[in-house]
Amino acid sequence: MDHGKSTCPKGFSDSTIHVDVKDYYGKRLKKTSDLKTNACVAPVQPTPDFIRQALKKVHPEITARYYGCGLVVPECLEGCRILDLGSGSGRDCYMLSQLVGEKGHVTGIDMTDGQLELARIYVDHHMKEFGYKKPNINFVQGYIEALTKAGLENDSFDVIISNCVVNLSPDKRLVLTEAYKVLKDGGELYFSDIYSNGRLTEEIKNHKVLWGECLAGALWWKDLLQLAEKVGFSPPRLVTASVITVDNKELQGILGDFKFVSATYRLFKVPNGNTKNCKVIYNGGITGAEDSFQFDCQYTFMANEVVEVDGEVANILTHSRFAEDFTFQPLGGPTGPCGVKPKAGIEDPFELALKLGVQGPASATGGCCSTQSAGCCK
Tell me: the pLDDT tens digits for 121-152? Predict the structure, then answer.
């Protein structure tokens, strides 16, 4: 698809929420400091050098119009086809364009005309800056609930990322369903978003500013687990989490006792049925994570160390892009020294946020509302 064209998906129309969000991000916000809560703003944490270098090559105007923080960047992206949901000004897309390389490809999809127009203006500039003979990036106008109607093909992406965008949709199940469709077998949805500690009231759901601030559309975290299973994804793997604070007294009064957390999850499109534990050895081949690779909040793999993983993780590692970075051994077979048993996973992001708050920042990738920064590789 031509990166200069603007095409709305047929058969999908704006809801009131879509209109309000477009207005908030397209007209009312001019810079990140215009946001009224820290739901999409967080302290900057150290970023890997190769990510910093990639960001430096992004045009300043693109960066200035980026309404977020942190980075949602999983590992092993070289040569991958990536989709960025809610790509905005295109900052992350242009950074990812460098990570996937000229043989990879990045697509950004957004429903806001002004953001898309800005992102498209600088395609040729960045390709020249990166030394690419032809663009490896394009921007599509459309809705994250209607990816196929926007012209994206089924089974066409290795990785989908999203940073504080899914909460802006009134239909989360449709978002996950569409993401599942366009992912290849073995593909991953890696995203950071806002979650609540219960189902929100209608008053909160109907508040325009709270929608724009990423809070009114927050999903109860337990509902994510159920939605992912219904759509067909593997059980969500919790990567990191941090508490969201609201310093605006008026908004605090409306929110009452509800609490919010930013959490990063990874969901995979892999076959069901493999529930056997197995032993794995991380080969240390992931760029930027040569010594250790943090898969989620439960598993951090040290290079050349034997680790027993649960069946879900074994299934993911076997069928995803990480397969070549691990050596697999059946239980009971020959093992190396210091075999590590699987630990009980943490499902509750509020529990994890509390744990990380006591122990200090983790080394995991963080997202829009996280105090963590990016950790990625290859």
Answer: 999 999 999 999 999 999 999 999 999 999 99
69 Cβ contact partners less than 8 Å away, ≥ 6 residues apart: 32, 40, 41, 42, 44, 368, 369
Of residues 330 and 106, the one with the higher pLDDT is: 106
**pTM of the prediction?**
0.84
- Name which of 163, 164, 172, 165 is nearest 145 in CA terms: 172
At residue 373, the pLDDT reads 29
**Pairing of the two strands 183-196 and 260-268:** antiparallel
The more confidently predicted of residues 72 and 318 is 318
Bridge partners of 190, per DSSP, are 161, 266
Distance CA 19, CA 153 (A): 26
DSSP 83: E
Q: Please answer whether residues 342 and 311 qualify as being in contact, where contact means their C-beta atoms are separated by less than 8 angstroms.
A: no
Q: Where do runs of H (alpha helix) occur along 13-171?
A: 16-23, 49-56, 60-64, 91-100, 113-121, 123-130
